[in-house]
Amino acid sequence: MKILSFIAQVTALLLSLSSVAHAAVDSLNCPAIAANTSDNYAKGCIAPLSPLREAICHYKPKRWVDNLRLFDSTLGNYYVRYLRSAGVGTSVCKQLLNGHQAYESQIEQCGNHGDCVLKVMDAWSQKLSTIEKSLRVPIKMSSLQQFAGKAYIQDGSKTVPLLERLKQGMDLFPLPRLALKNGNELIWGFQPHNAQVQSLMILNHQGDVQVMGLVDNLYLGMSGGQAPAGLDPEARLSLLVRNPAALSENLPAIHAWAAASLLGFNQTCPGKDQQACQAAMAQTLPIKAYNLNCKVKPQGNILVDHCTLPLPSVKNDVSPGLFWQ
What we know:
Distance between the termini: 60 Å
Structural class: alpha+beta
Radius of gyration: 24 Å
Largest sheet: 7 strands, mixed
Number of domains: 2
Order of helices and strands: HHHHHHHEEHEEEEEHHEE
Shape: elongated
Number of helices: 10
């Protein structure tokens, strides 16, 4: 009986540790943290001012024409932007949160000493840049060209090279990104002055293309969380892979991205937009997947239905609230 009691206690302890571990991972939800993070310390320089805010609002460094407010807001804006693209439970999310915790501690210790505040801000600026550069997936034209090959797609009444159509929907800077739990990164964009032409790609951490996506007439298809009589009949989301396994690995993120696009992105869910997010996730999406290694090409290099892949059944456990632009 004592042995059984001991085993029960050990089991309970392991379960407790497991739940703590899961809670720690769940707490690394950088987009959710971004939604509740101020993008500056100055807060309008409205009295009463703390010693730190006094330094930010009124200290004027030598050779500067203004105070530290612009530096403060610039750092805050970049931090919040990086949080939104860092994903949930990713290494970049962890590094951002740990780095900012150290930054907060150091800058609070400066009090109203302007030179100290400037020094800490400058160090955090360099740290942010290092984190962003070291953990961002490189976009390599050689990888895009190798993946697209000589494939053409039907674009309305025209046939255009796949890579050309991808670029049309990514004529944007900087391109929005989201780090995924599987180590990949989802990058997307749209055509200037025509957000109905969108493109996405998923790259692994070495910059190798896993999925390309061409999207038409999906954006704001459920503005306000309500679909009209139906989505635009011309709406489509064409996914292109060379390894069919990439579909099951990345489809949950793509489905959530499409739901976010239907709503116009920038949704707070969980939160005030939860109902709209759920409605968008429940929408039947016009997704088709194609295998670029398809051997049957009766129309030359143009992708045809002979090259389609069945969409795998996956758990849609990624939130549309992760996608901001």
